[in-house]
User: What shape does this take?
Amino acid sequence: MKNCNRITQIASDGQERPLTLAEKTHLHSHLFFCPGCRAFYDNSKTLSKMMKDFKSKDTK
Ligand SMILES: [Zn+2]
Assistant: This one.
């Protein structure tokens, strides 16, 4: 897949800020065809959630 670098960048950005509609469309249409990026996206979501959980525990 030729756009994988771009897609993984968008997936990472999506953990930091809301994505634009164009970015979301681009991301999800690519994820549909590319298992590698889908795995990366799932991992980055899980990691991001873990970091948030860790931070919220830290402040308590
Ligand atoms: Zn890809």
About this structure: Helices lie at 4-16, 21-33, 35-59. The chain has one domain: 4-59. Residues 1 and 34 are 7 Å apart (CA to CA). The mean pLDDT is 91.
